[in-house]
């Protein structure tokens, strides 16, 4: 299934939401210390450039600069399933000048890695959820499958020969595809990349056959015709892509693959310089 022309509309919708968030920041700033902000603020993106977190940060950047009157620096610090960038903010000064955009994987890292150099609840403070959207199952356009069921049949005919790419080991997509593969009764080889952007490029180039990525991450490749969308991970069809079936419709009832991106800062930021909470700890 092709979704040509849909990506621009999707970006426009998110763009409008980000403008609203940026304007809200002006009101938030009034509750900070009288001189906040007095210097540049950095937003740490724990993935490579081109990933969903990076795109959101760069869309948000100019509007926050206009609202807050200070430069906003987007700093990509990828690696270790987002832990390198997360560690940088966890250990930053608690002064409101270091922000962090994290994906859903953030919530399971503590369970998967018991040797973290920081404590997710103790060292980081949630601010808000920026965006939430279902992920998209997509394949290289040369793969002879136009539905999830057809892909499953192909994988069963060639067990262990198909590859799937993700933004890294133990990431949300890695765990979800392994869960889905177990339900489908198939085995594939996992190819981890350092972020969603290289994973999207890899499936477009044919290095891998399948990915499960956000719309922002994979729609540009779909629009080129190099990648084909098979299904969305939402329990209901995405109104922006009404012709794209859900995984639940495609033979996997109850299966859900939804990503959110959250904005956090360093814990211990003084009350007068902290962002208001909108997510539970």
User: Strand order within the widest sheet?
Assistant: 2-1-3-10-4
Estimated radius of gyration: 19 Å
* Order of helix and strand elements from N to C terminus: HEHEHEHHEEHEHEHEHEE
Beta content? 15-25%
The outline comes out as elongated
Number of strands: 10
How far apart, in Å, are the first and last alpha carbons?
39 Å
Low-confidence stretches: 4-17, 22-31, 272-281
Main sheet summary: 5 strands, mixed
Helix content: 25-40%
Q: Average pLDDT across residues?
A: 84
Secondary structure category = alpha/beta
The total count of helices amounts to 9
List the helices and strands and how they pair.
Blueprint: H1 6-29, E1 41-45, H2 52-68, E2 72-76, H3 83-90, E3 98-102, H4 109-112, H5 120-123, E4 124-134, E5 136-140, H6 148-157, E6 163-166, H7 172-184, E7 189-192, H8 196-205, E8 210-213, H9 215-223, E9 227-232, E10 258-266
Parallel strand pairs: 1-2, 1-3, 6-7, 6-8
Antiparallel strand pairs: 3-10, 4-10, 5-8, 5-9
Any descriptors?
disordered C terminus; alpha/beta; 281 residues; 9 helices; 5-stranded mixed β-sheet
Describe the structure.
There is one protein chain. The chain has 281 residues and is α/β, with parallel strands linked by helices. It has nine helices and ten strands. The protein has helices spanning 6-29, 52-68, 83-90, 109-112, 120-123, 148-157, 172-184, 196-205, 215-223; strands at residues 41-45, 72-76, 98-102, 124-134, 136-140, 163-166, 189-192, 210-213, 227-232, 258-266. The strands form two sheets. Strands 2-1-3-10-4 form a five-stranded mixed sheet, with helices on both faces. Strands 7-6-8-5-9 form a five-stranded mixed sheet. Helix 2 (52-68) links the parallel strand 1 (41-45) and strand 2 (72-76). The radius of gyration is 19 Å and the shape is elongated. 43% of the residues are buried. The model is unreliable at 4-17, 22-31 and 272-281 (pLDDT under 50).
